[in-house]
Amino acid sequence: MKELEYPFDSEYIIKKRKSLRKSLLSDGTKRLKKKIAVFGGSTTNDIVVYLELFLLNYGIEGEFYQSEYGQYWQDAMFPSDELKAFSPDIVFIHTTNRNILNYPTTADTREQVQTLLEQEYSKFEQMWTKISETYHCPIIQNNFEMPFYRLMGNKDCSDYRGRSNFLTRLNTKFYEYAEKTEGFYINDINFISASYGLKEWSDPSYWNMYKYAMCVEAIPEFSFNLSNIIKSVFGRNKKALALDLDNTLWGGVVGDDGVDGIQIGQETGVAQTYYEFQSYVKSLKSLGVILTVCSKNDHENAIAGLNHPEGALKPDDFIIIKANWENKDRNILETASELNIMPDAIVFADDNPAEREIVRAQVSGVAVPTMDSVENYIINIDRNGYFEVTNFSADDLKRNEMYKANAERAAQQASFADYGEYLTSLDMTAVIDDFIPLYLQRITQLTNKSNQFNVTTKRYTATEMEEVAGSDEYIRLYGKLVDKFGDNGVVSVVIGHRNGETLDMDLWIMSCRVLKRDMEFAMLDRLVERSISCGISTIRGYYYPTAKNKMVCDLYGKFGFTKISEDEQGNSVWELALEGYQPKNRYIKVEDNSSIK
Amino acid sequence: MDNKAIYEKLNKVFRDVFDDDTITVGPKTTANDIEDWDSLEHITLMTAVQKAFKVKFTMGEISSMKNVGEMVKIIAARAK
Predict the structure, then answer these.
(1) Do domains A2-233 and A240-382 have the same CATH topology?
(2) Above 0.90 for ipTM, yes or no?
(3) What are phi and psi of B49, to 5 degrees?
(4) Which of A100, A159, A180, A443 is exposed most, by the fewest CB atoms within 10 A?
C-alpha cells in the first residue's frame, strides 16, 4: 500500500489509522502471524497502532502484548503468567533517555561516573539475558536518543559528566553486546530522532502530558523503522533491485544523446549526483542484493551506457540485463523466473511514473519506490528498508557471484543433448552432514527465506535453531553444494524429530538456485543413512500448501513415499519404510563435515 | 476562517479519526458524546486537529479545553 511506503505522509496515517487498518485486514492477503511483546518505559499505545499497520503491509499480522505503563523492567525480570502464556515470537524493549535513572552530576569523579555507567548498563544486560532464557526469541532494543538540552553546551558531548557523553558511552556498550549476540538487534532511535529533528521529536509536552517519549507526529516514522527490523528477522526482505537506465542510472537518454552525451561522473553537479547513486547501488551489491537492468533500450546502447568510463557500475555488476522494447511488467516477471525468486522479492527503480504504475499494477507485491528526482533516489530506496540487514552471512557477500555462475550453467546446459550428461559435466561435490556452528546462521537464514522449495514453511529464530542444533531428539542435515562454476554455499536444510522408530519431518527446504541438480536426492540418501543408524524404520513427511510452495506438493511422492492422508486444504502426510532403500543420487559426490577446513 | 468553515473542517477530522461518518460535532460536544473518544484517542485527535488547521495548542490550552466550542474558539483566534 503506497500510503505506508517511504516517503509517507504521517499526518494522513495518523488521521486514517482506523480505515487503513480495516482495508489492510480485508484485502485477502494471507499473512504470517507473529506474537510481539512490547516492554515499554513510556506509553506504547500508538507505537503499536502504527507498527501493526506497517507490519500488515509487509504481510505480517501481529498479535501484541504491551506492558502496563512503564513496567518494562518488571515484565522482563518477573514475567506474569499472562506473559508466559502469550509466549512472544519477538520482544521489543521501548526505553529512551527518559528511563535513565541516574545521570552524572557535575560533582562526580570520573570513577563515580564509570560506576553509574556500569549500573545503568547491567540493568539492561540482566534484562536481555533473562528474556532470552525465558522466551528464546529475538530481542529488539532501542538505543538512546540524545538529550534535548545540553547543560554544559558543546562540552556536554565531550566531558565525562555530560549527559550527551554518558548516553553516547551507554550506546557504545549496547552496540558491543549487539555485535556479539545473535538474535539481538538495536532499533536506532538515535538516528531516527536526529533525522526527524531532535527539537520537535523531544517536545517535552508529550512526555509531561501523555508520557510519550517523543512527539506523536513522529511515531509513524519510529514504528516504520522498527517494522523494518521485524520484517527482516521474519524473512520478508527484498532480494533484487531492477533498475531502469536513462534518467535513472545516468542523466539523459543514451539512445538519443550518445554515450558522450549522458550525465555521469564528475563533470557537473547532476553528473555527480548520478555517480553517487551508482556508487550506492554498487554498495548494495556488496550486501548481497542482486542487481538487474530493466530498460527500454537497444541492448547495445544499454551496454555502451553502462561501459561509460566515468560510471561506477559496469555491465558485469548485473546478473540479468533486460534492455529491449517489451513491456516492463513482462520483463520483471521474466527476471523473477530466471533468478528463481518470487516477483514480490524485487524492487523496481524507474524515473518514469508511467512505467512505475504499470509494474505496480501488474506485478503483485513488487516494491516500486518513488524516483522523482535524482537527489532523492538514494534516500527513497534506503529509507524504505527493503534490504534491512539483520543477519549478515558470508553467503550474502557472495550471492551475486553465485547468481552469475548460475547464468553460466544455464548457457552450458543448452549445449548438452542429455540432461544427465549435463549434470555429470558440472562435477558436483556436496557436503551433507549434521549442523556445525560455522553454518548455523546461514541455516537459520535459509529457513526464513525459502518459500518455494519448502514443504512445511516452518520458520526458526536464531535461538530456536540453536536449541534444535543442541538436542538429541532431532536428526538434522545441511547440504552445501560446489560445482565447477563455483560454490553455491549452504543450499538445503532438513530437520526431523524422533518419535520412537519414526522420524517426523519438521522441515525440508532447498534454495531455488540449485533446482534440478538432484541435490534433494543426495539429501534423502544421507537422511535415510543417518536414520537407519539411529534405529529409525519409517520416515514420515508432511506437506502444507501455501501460496508459494506448489513446486514441492509431490516432493515426497517423487522420493518414493506413500501418501497416507490428505485433507480438504491439501495438507498431506507421507510415509517411507526404510528397509531395502536404494540410494537415488547419481551425480553428486557426497562428503561429510570432516572435509571442511 | 469563519466558524462555519471551522466546524465543517473539524467534523471531517473527527470522522477520519474515529472512522465514523455519522459524527457531527457542535460547540457543546465533549468526549462523553463519542464512544471511542478516550484518553488515548484524544492524543490522536489533538494531533490531527492541530495538523489540519496548522496551529499548535499550548499545554495549557490542551489541558483546559472543556468542549469542542472552546477548541473552535482557539482555532478561530489562531488559524491563518
Answers:
(1) yes
(2) no
(3) -65, -45
(4) A180
Distance from C-alpha of A511 to C-alpha of A389, rounded to nearest angstrom: 20
Domains of chain A: which residue ranges?
Answer: 2-233, 240-382, 409-595
Closest CA to A321 of A342, A305, A341, A308: A305
Residue of B44, B46, B56, B65 to mutate when probing chain A, most A C-beta within 10 A = B44
For domain A409-595, give the CATH number: 3.40.630.30
Of A84, A4, A78, A70, the residue nearest A37 (C-alpha): A84
Using an 8 Å Cβ cutoff, are A140 and A93 in contact?
A: yes
User: What letter would DSSP give residue A399?
Assistant: H
Asked whether the beta carbons of residue B40 and residue A14 sit closer than 8 angstroms, the reply is: no
Indicate the pLDDT class of residue A393, thresholds 50, 70 and 90: low
Between CA A251 and CA A263 the distance in angstroms is: 4
Contact status of A22 with chain B (Cβ, < 8 Å): yes
Which string of DSSP letters, residue by residue, matches A56-99? HHTTEEEEEEEPSTT-HHHHHHS--HHHHHH--SEEEEE--GGG
Pick the closest to residue B17 from A200, A579, A46, A394 (CA basis). Answer: A46
Asked whether residue A40 carries a pLDDT value surpassing 70, the answer given is: yes
CATH number of the structural domain A2-233 = 3.40.50.1110
A14, A26, A49, best to mutate vs chain B, most B CBs in 10 Å: A14
- The arithmetic mean of pLDDT across residues A30-59, rounded, is 96
pLDDT digits over A465-501, tens only?
999 999 999 999 999 999 887 888 899 999 999 999 9
CA–CA dist A306, A239 (Å, integer): 22
Residue A580, phi then psi, degrees to nearest 5 = 75, 15
Long-range contacts of the stretch B57-60 (C-beta < 8 A, 24+): B59/A205, B59/A208, B59/A209
Residues of chain A contacting B18 with CB distance shorter than 8 Å? 18
Q: Which domains does chain B have, with CATH numbers?
A: 3-78 (1.10.1200.10)
CA distance A576 to A370: 52
Q: Give, as one character, the DSSP assignment of residue A14.
A: H
Give B59→chain A minimum CA distance, Å. Answer: 6
Instruction: Kindly determine whether residue B16 and residue A216, on different chains, have CB atoms separated by under 8 Å.
Output: no
What pLDDT does residue A463 have? 87
CA distances, A105 to each of A110, A204, B62 (Å): 11, 21, 34
Helix (H) / strand (E) element for A483: namely strand A474-483
Residue A397 scores a pLDDT above 70: no
pTM over 0.90: no
Parallel, antiparallel, or unpaired for β A562-566 and A320-324?
unpaired
**Which grid cell sits at B16?**
477520519
